[in-house]
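Q: Sequence in, structure out?
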Amino acid sequence: MSSSAPQLRSHLPRTAPQLAQAAVRRARLTLVPRPVVRSSAAKVPFVMLLSVVLLGGVIGLLLFNTSMQQASFRASALQAQANDLSARQEALEMSLQELRDPQRVATRAQRMGMVIPTAPAGMLDLDSGRVLGDPTPASEGHRLPLADPPPTRPSVLDPAPTTARGR
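A: Exactly. Output:
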């Protein structure tokens, strides 16, 4: 290598300006081409997809909220209807109890002319089917008093009248 060193030194002064020019050419700034517009175009479908998903979510949420409100209104209406029917059932049961009242039944029976018999018709022979004894029909005078008699006023409440004489 020592033999090539003198050759290199003699060659260096001639090639140095060429090397310097090549280095300057390489060191110069050059414009880099702009990125392809395709990269911004790739963002558009993603933004559109994101917008559609958000819009779909908002619409779905509104539809869900609306259906929940309708179900709530329907439940309130059914509850009110159940309350009305319950009150009507209670009123009908009270009316039925009033119609079944023995006092009322006896009063209506007497108005229709029914009376209670005084004596039983006798005995019925089950083998022969004959009536034993003397049956007597019930008469109008054998009515039962259905209403209690009014209470009598105690005599303590009706003292003898006293008269005052003047002096």
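The chain has a mean pLDDT of 81.
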